[in-house]
Each structure stands twice: as C-alpha cells, then as structure tokens.
Amino acid sequence: MAAGCVLVAVLATGQPGVSPAAAQPAVVGLDVSGHQTTIHWSAVAAAGAEFAYIKATEGRGFVNPGFASQYDGAYQAGLIRGAYHFALPNDSTGAAQASYFVANGGGWSADGKTLPGALDIEYNPHGAKCYGLSQSAMVAWIASFNNTYHALTSRWPVIYTTSGWWATCTGNYAGFASEDPLWIAGYGAAGTLPAGWSFYTFSQYPPVGTFPGDQDTFNGSSSRLTRLAVGG
Known about the structure:
Blueprint: E1 9-10, E2 27-32, H1 41-46, E3 51-58, E4 62-63, H2 67-76, E5 80-86, H3 94-106, E6 118-120, H4 135-153, E7 158-161, H5 163-170, E8 182-184, E9 202-205, E10 214-218, H6 222-230
Parallel strand pairs: 2-3, 3-5, 5-6, 6-7, 7-8
Antiparallel strand pairs: 1-8, 2-10, 3-4, 9-10
Helix pairs in contact: 3-4
C-alpha cells in the first residue's frame, strides 16, 4: 500500500462493525499517499467520501512529505481520517517503528474525527516477501508494533494486509483478532479472511474510481464509523 494501497478492514471482536449480510448502504472513503500530490478535499467530500486513510510513515526513516496537508485537508473537509504506517520489518523493530509512526502523525485523539492508526504490512516491494523473517519472528514483530502503539495511544492499531501474505508470513496467526481491526486488500471482494477475523469493516478497491488514490467502503453505518473513531 506504499503507493496508496487497498484497504479492507476487518474489525476485531468487540469493535464496531456488522456482518456483510447486515450492511447498510455503503459508507465510502479513500486512502492516499505521497503519490497523490494534489487532492481537492472539498470535492472529495462533495462526492460522498466520509473517511480517509493517509500514509504518514515508512520504516523508521521516511515521512510522507504531503502528509500534513493531506491529513488536515481531509479534516477541514469534514472527513473522519486516520494515518497509516508502511512496515519494513527488516529495517528496525516493531516498537521502534510504532514510536516513529506516532511521533510523525500516527497518533490518535478522541475527537470523533480520528481513526486509530493502521499498520500496513504486506509483501516486501524491495526484496524477500517476508522481509527475511520466520513466521514466528514476524508475529513477534507485529506484536511489538501492536503493543507499543497501544501503550502510546490507548488504541489498538488497524492491521492492513492480504490473506495470502498473512498465511505465508505469519502462518495464519489468529492471535491479533481479539484486539485489532483488520484492514485487508480485497479488490472488491473480501474472500477468505485471515485466521481469527470473521467479518470485515473496510474494503478497498483498485485506484480507479471516484476518489484519488484507492477506493474504500466501510462495512457499517456512519454512526458506527464514528464509534470506531471515538473508541467506544
């Protein structure tokens, strides 16, 4: 998702969300990165977007140069927005990257307009798809990021991934489902979900559609989206 990736979030047990069969008319949004250099947020809102995820950081050495204007622009247009971090598990520890993310825009506030930060962890665009880590080491890395982010913000992060990567690189580990909403690349169809999650909350589509970046839907009502932002 480093180039503005696809989001499907599956909410963990206890998180606001509904089963697909109970879903109401789609609550739509988008996700963007530094590749989207000019975004007319008022037009995005007028076209029906209610939320946005915006890339803040990557590894422990890159900050999206457009993050501040994108994040503030979404807020000023009335969208509920959140930040995401592109993980590079071979670069530094999960704890170090969570701290870097929070220090550079990935925090959270209970203002009803801020989604919990998202950890984007997927196939390595630069080398070995599991970043050279064993399945157990990858689970430990994610846990380190997860626990540090929670300690710094009081929220569990959303996890963005693909079912294939999760099975290959974590052994289809199910232990995060009781805490973390899952954001899974679905390209319009959620398909088989990683172990532990039984329904999705965000689904993302390829970058061709109404909004800049990728197109997303929230599997629930606008009020439930606000609940996710508030943390209730």
